[in-house]
Write a structure and sequence with these properties.
It contains 13 helices and 16 strands. By secondary structure, the protein is an alpha/beta fold. The protein has two domains: 171 residues, Aspartate Aminotransferase, domain 1; 247 residues, Aspartate Aminotransferase, domain 2. Helix 3 runs parallel beside helix 10 and helix 6 runs parallel beside helix 7. It starts with a helix and ends with a helix. 50% of the residues are buried. Bound molecules: pyridoxal-5'-phosphate. Pyridoxal-5'-phosphate binds next to helix 4.
Length: 427
């Protein structure tokens, strides 16, 4: 495959954009090759600057569950653009999308629109602190909630110590309010809460961890957190930025029957345009300004183009049997990938929930971040490069999930399995 044009663009981009990209993982650093630059996309396929076509499992990191350029979404965006790109004033479209969100998540009585997942989690945490009058927050190692200061934190020597920043530029004084715990370990969380009694505003987590591959919650983990939060006056923030409208219309909360006090949304809700949202109980949400004192704002929040793309997308997701079809496609693909790996003698743990999945190149199942064995990233890099050459676009890291869209055909899936069969031989 020729990547001449992509190489030229990357060289140029590196001169004026740090690392040549506007979000770090796009630089392909952990898979040992240069990134491809994308020119266009349609359905299940994306096309790079050199004209190579790939079956796409990145889907813009989740949003494109309908496939790229769904005609109804394109039409909605075009219509909205004709009405004006932005006014900085309220519109009816915001109410329509808010209503659709409320319908999907019954625990969301009120919702506020923002422009990214980062903004949604950052604002939800500020609100939780404002509501409870407490400063500390608890998150899980390996869960990603965007790049706000207090969230770029990892535990120090032990989980019971105060957090230390994982990025320069985050003052240690901010990080000390962030406690981190081991995903899927309820007992450890209970101990942390007991050691910080009356001081924790919220526990935030991904209900299915998709930023360390694809890790489902152990039976009872989410329920246990719900009970713990209720007993301790802690708000449970369920970050469904990735899982919302992905693993079911009502997200992981519908799938697992556990409800957060606050919920964060992003990705699919904007149908490919920049949208995030957070919502929850009226009593909590009315602490937000202008009703309450917790400040939160955005010049482009509720942008008409973004709202239109979201409304068109969610409308299509409500079609009967949509999530069954996504489930069928994902089951078919993952079964094929696992069978070929077994035949090739490559140890893998194929983990999947609904239309999100991950192949870990190790025999042991992953339940938390520390379970990912150190050698797997290098094996994944080889696998990734082979798949790319065969015309399959995966997310460029072992720690990312793959995403199925409704546009993926059986032929696409068979081609992907055949490409994997070839790739396994190179490992
Ligand atoms: C992607 C993601 C975010 C951040 O969203 P951005 O739109 O990239 O700011 C937050 N939480 C989770 C779970 C995510 O997957």
């Amino acid at each position: 495959m020729n990547h001449q044009k992509s190489s030229e663009l990357f060289a140029k981009a590196k001169q004026i954009i740090p690392g040549g990209v506007n979000s770090p993982v796009r630089a392909f650093k952990s898979v040992g090759c240069d990134p491809i630059f994308i020119k266009s996309a349609s359905g299940s396929k994306i096309v790079d600057a050199d004209g190579n076509s790939y079956i796409d499992y990145v889907g813009s990191w989740g949003p494109m569950i309908l496939g790229h350029c769904h005609p109804k979404v394109v039409e909605a965006i075009q219509q909205a653009a004709k009405d004006g790109a932005s006014y900085g004033a309220p519109t009816e479209r915001e109410i329509i999308l808010a209503d659709m969100v409320r319908e999907a998540y019954p625990n969301i009585e009120m919702v506020r629109m923002v422009s990214s997942g980062t903004e949604a989690t950052m604002s939800a945490i500020r609100l939780a602190r404002g509501y409870t009058g407490r400063d500390k927050i608890l998150k899980y190692d390996g869960c990603y909630h965007g790049h706000a200061d207090s969230l770029l934190v990892k535990a120090g020597s032990g989980a019971a110590t105060f957090g230390v920043p994982t990025s320069p530029g985050v003052p240690a004084d901010f990080a000390k309010y962030t406690l981190t715990a081991t995903y899927n370990d309820l007992e450890e969380t209970k101990a942390l809460v007991a050691a910080n009694k009356g001081e924790i505003a919220c526990i935030i987590l991904e209900p299915i961890a998709g930023n360390m591959g694809c890790v489902a919650p152990r039976p009872g983990f989410l329920q246990g957190l719900r009970t713990l939060c209720d007993a301790e006056g802690i708000l449970l923030i369920i970050d469904e930025v990735m899982t919302g409208f992905r693993v079911a219309f009502g997200g992981a909360q519908e799938r697992f029957g556990v409800r957060g006090d606050l919920v964060c949304l992003g990705k699919i809700i904007g149908g490919g345009l920049p949208v995030g949202a957070f919502g929850g109980k009226r009593e909590i949400m009315e602490k937000l300004s202008p009703v309450g004192g917790v400040y939160q704002a955005g010049t482009l929040s509720g942008n008409p183009l973004a709202m239109s793309a979201g409304i068109a997308t969610l409308t299509l997701l409500k079609e009967k049997g949509f999530y069954d079809r996504i489930e069928e496609k994902s089951t078919y693909l993952c079964k094929g990938l696992a069978e070929e790996a077994k035949a090739a003698g490559v140890p893998t743990s194929l983990q999947r929930v609904g239309g999100m999945f991950c192949t870990y190149f190790q025999g042991q199942e992953v339940f938390n971040f520390a379970d990912v064995e150190p050698g797997t990233q290098a094996i994944f890099g080889k696998f990734f490069r082979s798949m790319l050459e065969s015309g399959v676009n995966l997310a460029p890291s072992q720690y990312e999930a793959g995403f199925m869209s409704i546009a993926h055909s059986t032929d696409d899936l068979d081609q992907t399995i055949a490409a994997a069969k070839k790739a396994y031989k190179t490992l």
